[in-house]
Amino acid sequence: MDARTSVTSPVSPSSPHPSAPDAPDVPDSPDVPSAPGGADSRISPGGPGFRRMSFALFLAGVATFALLYSTQALLPLISGDLGVSAGDASWTVAAATGGLAVFVLPMSALSERYGRRTVMTASLAVAVTVGLLVPFAPSLGALVALRALQGAALAGVPASATAYLAEEVRPKALVTAIGLFVAGNSVGGMSGRVITGWVAQEWGWRVAVGVIGVLAVACAVAFRLLLPAPKHFRPGSLRPRVLLGTVRTHLANPLLRRLYAIGALFMTVFGGVYTVIGYRLAEAPFSLPQGIVGSIFLVYLVGTVAASAAGRLVGRLGRRGALYAAGGTTTAGLLLSLAGSLPLILLGLVLITGGFFAGHAVASSAVGRTATRGRAQASALYQSAYYVGSSVGSTVGALAFHSGGWAGTVGVGLVAVAGVVTITVLGTRAARVERRGLAPA
Question: Tens digit of pLDDT for each residue in 215-226?
């Protein structure tokens, strides 16, 4: 195994931890049209259906992230309206990401049986319905409960999207295809925060989250109309023993464990920074109005570009090199954000965002390539770790800000990036040991 790709390359046939085989195929479900299933018929860039598929999943990403983080830019207003602290208000974000983290694995099991497209459609339908109820939450407790339910519903999208792409797209184009899906995530996260910021400045946070709910409805409908029917999906079993066996096998794979940890740590940085940044910019010496604070999230456009370019970055540096580059860029951004100058803070956010989305696209695509069987469970475990990282980052980042200011939040982020680098180094060493034919110590 090439050391350069040790953290993210697929497990070789001789690996002691191969992915678990799926359950025997059963007759096709209505979600699966009868069509040739050979690898030659998979979609590739420039081929029939690629743009339609990419745009459909792009819209799913927009809806998911717009809903998931719809309250993040509004936390100062929610704190003022409901009379709660930054730490308490941060639970409106942490509950949504936590709900997603808990339910992504069960949703992946449903997608193995009933189809990726079916589960994604049902998930979006429930999530947008809850999104239309969120503006009417009478208290913080009710708001947090609705957000947790919304996150649980949204779990079906990330649980199924990567598996759908891994099955329907040619392997060489997988990083590019997943990068476009992640780009949709960044656009959703950006548009949700920017739109809510300006709407809330005029009409309050409740109207703002209602507008996001309506936007998500439109995206969900367009997604269902555009996404091509899968040609390579074959239903699996819902038997708990089979599912638990698949999960255990994935968790026994040291390469997948490293990827899960990398995703969680990158998201810890991102969740902490973007949960707290609104408070920092709304306070002295900046004292920015809510609309301007929301517009800060236009920086997400950098994430759109970084995620889309992840495939080219891997081609030049290898996956290990791409992770080092992403970690280094994120670190530079964190340190730069400590400055007291608004332009330097914005530049720091640009670097943090670009580094995060590049690292996430590289790690998540590597999971899809590594797990040749039980891909939905492998992807779900990554997403679960990823959103646990988001919940931890949101909560711990807010607590660190409360006790130590922005420097405390940056400190949490630097510790998480150090974890990414350490895991990547350990993966490289493990690959060298395997290549030399030596048993690990």
Answer: 999 999 999 998
